[in-house]
Amino acid sequence: MKISNLFARMTEIKNDTGEYVEIREVERGDKSGGRLVVRIPDKDLTLIRAKKFLDHSSYDGVPRSVHVIATANGTRTTMVLTAQYFNTNGRVTFEVENGKLVAKPETIPQTSTFMRRIGFSPPSSRVPS
């Protein structure tokens, strides 16, 4: 992890799909499938900077979307999210329900990695589906 991310607001991403999950950042107009940001094994949890995708859009003025890809029953399923999504939600769990990829977001007060590591874990509130 970069030292600059130590005090950054972070979003937890958990994979409960039964397979790996890929998160790709796709610029508007990109036909190649975008850039792989992270690949998360099943039952694993990772942290990303909450404003990661928003910052990239603001640097060059090109809007981006976030593609989350999982395999369900041998079929690839994709969910497209806005760049704002991970900034809005402090914790997101990805699951497969009825063959479709679903995101279960929770709004928690955004805290830095440093605050999480010293044991400050604010209460969460699951966003109704």
From TrEMBL:
<protein>
    <submittedName>
        <fullName>Uncharacterized protein</fullName>
    </submittedName>
</protein>
